Amino acid sequence: MKHPLIRCPLLLVMLAALSACSNRQENARIPAPAASAVAESPAQAADPAKDPLLAELMRAVFGEKYDTIQDQAVAELPDFEDRTTISTYAITPWNHTALPTGQTLLLANALMVGDDGHIIDSHGTSGLLNLYVLIRQKGQWKTVKRHDNFDALGSSGNPGMSRWVQLGAGKTGLAMTHGGSWQGYTIEMLSLYDVSNGHVRNLTPDPIIVHSDNNGWCRPLDSCWDVSGEWKLATVAGATGYGDLMIEFTGEKKDPVEGATEDTPLEITRPAKSVQSHARYRFDGSTYRLIEGDNPAPSI
Questions:
Q1: For 246-260, what is each residue's pLDDT tens digit?
Q2: Which residues sit opposite 283 in a β-bridge?
């Protein structure tokens, strides 16, 4: 059975040399998104003890398969890569929001359960996003639409930080900031989905890099960098489509030390070049594309 991996070719090569890492929520450095030019709701912690609605929604979707003590449901879902194959997954609540239509969205993360009954959660395992659309009728929650395992993001079973955003007039969006660290390299990417009216449309088939560094592998022989972007969505007055994605990048880059060898001390001083850059992305009907400025955060 194939397991979802973070989708970046060089990272897949690196994963072969890695051992399992720590807790899914602590593995990747995930910064909070910048405030948007339009209204956004803050990311919510998946904690039913503090937000009882999460447990209510999970029970409505999964019934007795939801274990309130473990805060997860074990259920059969179609695989992300092969929709004709059904496998067993452990599903945990991640976030929720209410739509203007009166529907409620439940975002959940799924991890495959092996034949031995244990969750498959290695460093190279992505989290699997699930979105469920519910309505409340006569005091009871009813599931009206399911989007099982609609995307695979992140590493160590962690799909990243979620945030509900306003993509444009009447358009509710889901923003996921996701990534991970491998052998001293860290990358974070932004994925945007239109979830208006309970549908799911991926607006960034190729996620946009919003942070990259090699702070854990910055040798005198290497180019080194630490670049981060703060993003927001900006709408144009009277526009009916998706707002432009604006990213302000800052950071620094260092060139390899001239004449350095494997024996050159790591702490050798070298000048850093400041990075300050602006990038503007616009939706072209299929994806958000760079239309202005540049994205200086290197891929890894």
A1: 999 999 999 988 887
A2: 288
Rounded distance between C-alpha atoms, residue 200 and residue 183, angstroms = 34
Q: What is the pLDDT of residue 237?
A: 54
Cα(300)–Cα(288) distance, rounded to whole angstroms?
A: 21
Decide if pLDDT at 114 tops 60. Answer: yes
CB 146 within 8 A of CB 132: yes
Closest Cα to residue 226, out of 259, 284, 186, 263?
186
Distance CA 295, CA 227 (A): 10
Per-residue pLDDT reduced to its tens digit, 123-167? 889 999 999 999 999 999 999 999 999 999 999 999 999 999 999
Burial 145-174 (b: 16+ CB within 10 A, else e): eebbbebbbbbbbbbbbbbbbbbbeebbbb
Name which of 129, 123, 106, 97 is nearest 207 in CA terms: 129
Which uninterrupted H or E stretch holds 61?
Answer: helix 52-62
Task: Quickly list H helices, 4-130.
Answer: 9-15, 24-27, 52-62
Please report the pLDDT score of residue 90 as a whole number.
Answer: 97
**Residue 113 has which token pair?**
């359960």
**What type of residue sits at position 123?**
H
